[in-house]
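yo

u said u wanted the structure for the complex thing, so here. seqs first:
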Amino acid sequence: MIVTTAQKPTPEQTAYAQAIAAELEGRFVPRKQDSLQLLGRKYEDPVLLVADDRGLRYYEDSKEPLYFHPSMAYVRVKRMRKGERDPLIALTGCLPGDSVIDCTAGLGSDSIVFSYGVGASGKVTALESERVLYTVVREGLRSYRTGHEDVNDALRRIGMRCIDHLSYLKQQADKSADIVYFDPMFRHPLHDSSALAPLRGLANGAALSEESVKQALRVARKCVVLKEHGDSGEFERLGFEKRHRNKIAYGVIIPS
Ligand SMILES: C[S@@+](CC[C@H](N)C(=O)[O-])C[C@H]1O[C@@H](n2cnc3c(N)ncnc32)[C@H](O)[C@@H]1O
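structre next:
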């Protein structure tokens, strides 16, 4: 993977791109006046990460780039700011001060909603097993600016970890979090879900394991929640009670 900057970077931007290249074991190359296509051809590498004022953008061949954007999460949080209850917050019974483990961070949208929901006295830990995704989203949460300071604060408070959720859950004490949340890649992807399209090639597509659910039930005080395609059969396989019967459904298990 090539890591580069925008054209005419400041010394700080160059140092930042070099640090990201070192972290991801990529090859830092100076951008000069080259287009991204030319850089790819010159260094015979179709995988490119650009670090600039807009954050990190990951390009692979001619696919849509992957970058952090709060997208639907921002819409959901703006509704919450007006006093509306987000369906995921309502379903999980999430309250200010709660601690949430989001076991499948992805682009961080659900983590942002949880982070706004639990507020400054709560805690959201977002787990992502895939290193590039983790780095792009971690940097986005650190630097992206929405038009609202309280939303920016919610982004900054999310603690991201690059780790497989089963390993993480095994390290946690019994009943040490309020909510444990899983949103794995659907067994049967919804092809109209364009928000997740750039993530598909990079994401961990493994099915949720029974062992992860067992560990989640040990760690959670309030509930363990799974988001999946309504017809996937995953709720039945893993013992979740299906709560919403739309195309996208949530399943809940209340720990004993
Ligand atoms: C459907 S996406 C999650 C989308 C996310 N809820 C959002 O709002 O943006 C699933 C993510 O979970 C990650 N993932 C899958 N299995 C994982 C595991 N065992 N541990 C940590 N992350 C995992 C995938 O790499 C992918 O990025």
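The chain has two domains: 2-67, 71-253. The chain has a mean pLDDT of 93.
cya
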